[in-house]
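Extended Data, panel c. Modelled sequence:
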Amino acid sequence: MSINMNMDILEGKWKQLKGQVKQQWGDLTDDDLDRIEGRYDELVGLVQERYGRSRAEAEQEVSDFIDRLS
């Protein structure tokens, strides 16, 4: 799936997905999730920062997560 499609899915369904995002990345706080409001780049950045991933690894991880939801 394309990054643009992933961005649209994440932003469009953010309220429903927040719980699943929290399960996937437990180090992200509720405040983090409220602040990013489903923005793909923000989520990738937080995953990168909190889990010590490279940008490419974080993007792949978030994309894989969204693909599993579809």
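The chain has a mean pLDDT of 90. This feature is highlighted in the accompanying rendering.
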